[in-house]
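Handout, tutorial session.
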Amino acid sequence: MISGTEYKFKVLFVCMGNICRSPSAEGVLRHKVIERKLSEDIFIDSCATHDYHQGQEPDNRSQEAALKRGIDLSSQRARVITTYNFSEFNLILAMDKMNIMQIQSMMNDKEKEKLFLFLDFSKQNEWTEVPDPYYGKNNGFELVLDLLDEASDGLLNYLEERL
């Protein structure tokens, strides 16, 4: 449950394990929200569709790549999405189509209106899904951060128009 401030927007990022893509997206967006002085308006969290890494901190490679950009992910811990999240968040942003399908299978029709692929907010056209860097090389984490950074700008522009 989100307590305290009444946020205008609550954004939830979702990937499979919540140790690479979604915590990185949470960190990137939080960094930009702080820069734009929108912390009182926008709440950000992340979670997983699977419980493989429940309670673990983000992958070391994700943390290292993010730290190079001044973004600290070390306080985050992996958790699994719950049906309660569907009513608590305004936007639920999945990293790929497989996670969209997993989340949709848990939602009612009205809740599905708030579910999008995160890269739907991106201006670039090469990628429609954020690739999972877990089994790849370290440069995959840099690509993920580049995609998340660009999509975060688009998402913030979208949210700021509605504040």
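The second record follows below. Compare its token runs with those of the first.
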Amino acid sequence: MRTDLNILGSLTPLSDIAAADRDLEALASLLETEREPSLSILVEQIRAFPDSRFERLLELIPPESRALPQLDLVTAERAVPRMQAALLEWRSSGADLESGMTLLARTAYPRLKTEDIKAQLDAVALQLRPNVPFNGPRHILTIFTQMMRDVHRFHGSSEDYYDPDKTYINRVLEHRTGLPISLAAVYMLVGRRLGLNIEGVPLPGHFIACLRSGSDTLYFDPFREGVLLSLREVMSIVTGTGTAFRPEHLRPPTAPEILRRMLSNLESAYGRRHDSERSELVRQYLSVLS
């Protein structure tokens, strides 16, 4: 297909597009037909739009548009001050893990609705509830992890391990796979809905989870299909990284600590993809949670 950015001249210069809805409608249609690299050129010029016209343009873009990922990046860049303030407010008002992970996902997927994440987690828990027993922590954990694996298909995968989408909770729930830390977080959030005290275990180089019940602590690995781990096996994970095991490795992380680790993973993931724009966004969020 011929790419001809001179078509903009038949509309009006890009600096004038914000002046009339009819020109925004024409631009929305143009975004549907252009391909790289001209699509990126258009989006780069759209960055200069005032907020009101940019928001109006977004209303005209169909949900399946190939331009949406790039426009989402522009939206995310504009939202940094507001989202930084939201993360600071989140941290100071109790730092609920689910809310924090949803905020983190919205830094990359600004159209994400908070209620959608809650509804998906509620649905998983609702299906699990009649099947999870209420006696014997080992039995409880075995059934819980089995259903998360076999019924809901949550699993770890080393394929494209550094895909940023394996950190964002909306994409983890959609694809049923993620990094060790994001899968553990999903187990924690679903377990919480079932009255299970599941906590994260932030080992060096790996992230697992545990179920605490009375005096019992049962360690398991959501990334490895929920396999149960003895304390000796947990210690071996640590020493396998060349780090001496210390009791504080078993200390449950706070929600801000989990988010900081996720953001560090994202910074590394985007760096591997040479995505400097998204790497910079991540660094700005790391700065308010450090």
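Points raised in discussion: The chain has two domains: 7-78, 81-289.
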